[in-house]
Amino acid sequence: MVAQVSFEKENGFSSYFNYSSNLKVALAIEYATKDLKIQINDDLKTVQFVDQIQGQEFTLFNANAILCYAMNDFTGQDSEEFHFSESSLESFFRQQEVPQEHATVCVQKTLDNYLTSLEEPMTSLKLITFVNAFTLDPEQIIARFPTFPEKIKNAIVLAAKHTPRSSKNFKHTGTSKIATGFEVAVQSEEILPKDGERNIIITSALPYVNNVPHLGNIVGSVLSADIFARYCKSRNYNTLFVCGTDEYGTATETKALEEGVTPRKLCNKYHAIHKDVYDWFQIGFDHFGRTTTPQQTEIAQNIFTELNDNGFLEEQSMKQLYCEEHNSYLADRFVEGECPKCHYDDARGDQCDKCGALLDPFELINPRCKLDNSTPVIKNTDHIFLSLDKLEDDIKEWFLKASEEGQWSKNSKTITSSWLKEGLNPRCITRDLIWGTPVPLEKYKDKVLYVWFDATIGYVSITANYTKNWEQWWKNPENVKLYQFMGKDNVPFHTVVFPGSQIGTKENWTMLHHLNTTEYLQYEGGKFSKSRNVGVFGNNAQETGVSPSVWRYYLASIRPESSDSQFSWDDFVSSNNNELLANLGNLVNRLVKFVDAKYNGVVPKYDPKEISNFDELSSNINTILSSYINEMELAHERRGLEIAMSLSARGNQFLQENKLDNSLFSELPKKSDAVVGVGLNIIYAVASLIYPFMPETSNTIYKILNAPALKISNEFNLVIQGEHNINKPEYLFKRIDPKQVETWRSQYGGQSKE
Q1: pLDDT tens sequence across 151-186
Q2: CATH architecture of 3-164
Q3: Rg, the chain, Cα only
């Protein structure tokens, strides 16, 4: 009979015990006497040795006994060396955790007193002592004996093959093994255009300071611009993102009167409110300024003067509504009445909030003074007009070229075309107000510049507050592209009035390249209304306790890009629980927990070729990356987010296809290593794609992966390499109880669905 031996494959003992037993069994095979033939029995899962003596079968269950029997060497079993090895070393094996400092001390004592050489011939005692020491501190043993005898080397390989792997095999040292050249570049403290690079300046519509922004305001401009800015920066484009509060004009004066404060105090109050809201939403402005600055006055007056010098301003006497009750001309917003188009009763003199129509105060039915409700009378007053009719041909030529080359959103082109089709007429750019940029003409020193002429210049002055070298951005069309984000109601002032003003100065301005406009976000089938407590406003989102990343994700997913969209509490909760948690959260949590539990947080050395369809997988991912970049370059953010989440779904599919579990780890170690290595790189790529939408979530993933921010690449790369150490898993999202919907709906004026 040929003797049969089996290895320890159960995980009931510590990994130390399993490995030491199996190494002794492997040494028994290597050092067995010539007359003993040993066959490995893979059917058994515990250490056993079966042989015959004089026809009688017997079984050994102790690895030490098996080694001694195989070598026919039972000497030294009562020696001091054996007792030390058993009591001081092997005692550790039954512990799940071994204090490394204790093990080191014991192994050092072993080397000093007992294991002084590994020269042949070997005894069973010396091999038992070697195994017990080597199991606890292999590095110390290797340092003492750089070269092992051939039989010991063979036994180590055999034992490793038959020992279920454990996290104890992987030593977490905090090592970083990340390929270079793939990280997001750190921008300069002062961001300026660079020769030979793609230079992009991004603006979002300047929010007005007479209110708290609601979700529609946020997604329509600042969030949309922020997503695109973060995308650009993650592509390592040289990018500047500016915004600020629009603070001049009638609306400020009227709101200040309502609150009984000066316009300046009102602006200070709401500027701080807006900044707090945007900070919480993690809007990453490079500079968030305001229009009530000396730079605004200087630049706006210079543009006005150049337009005047070039013959593009004209003086007209015009009829204006005058309030005899408080003896003052009424600016557009000081007049309210019935809209002539939709008959909304609270239309303003410049615009109807219900239908969006731009109005003249004389068009209003039954106009009234906003201050005292008296009926105004008509009087003549002199004002300055921008001669858009003289600029019309140049504006049209510029529009046709810019809208095509910049691939403006459809609604941007439609709205602008409508204005141009009707023909441009001189437009009044002064107002009878106190709060505003003074008109730089002696005759008009008591008037100010019209806010919609003035406000768009705010982008320039806010940049000037950021850097004294602002002209490198705004008077550098050869090297800079301007991207602007806003709601559709702001379009004409950015595509007709402001570009016309730039053209009229005859200076070399950086002009609009890409315009991206949104439709309206509705709230649960109705409109946002602060006065009626309907809708979620910026400060309300924080009150819910839901993270900014979830809010950003949901708003981006319903971004009203080509038509109006609806905010729904049911959909909001569903997007968190069924998309973020079930898709992205599951991918990261499943794999990172596995790496933490099985690999002690150490990325194993891996060969992607161990995955049978790796080439196909890479091709799939590259297609996703290409589609994502194509959509995001055009600021199709809603579609970009869908594609980013599809990569996360592909990652989940990858783990499922390859059946990542304990069996794979133990039985197919090379494949398990490859799945882990490739899978972590998929997560890394996902983190880069979702960063524009959920920067906090991406940064958490980067922290978990112990890796720098990854640039958005054109193709999939294995940037995280073998022997890299990751950190402990963290939950990315929390489940929201669907019962919370009705609480929020009641709190914020939503409507229950039938």
Answers
A1: 999 999 899 888 877 776 788 888 999 999 999 999
A2: Up-down Bundle (1.20)
A3: 37
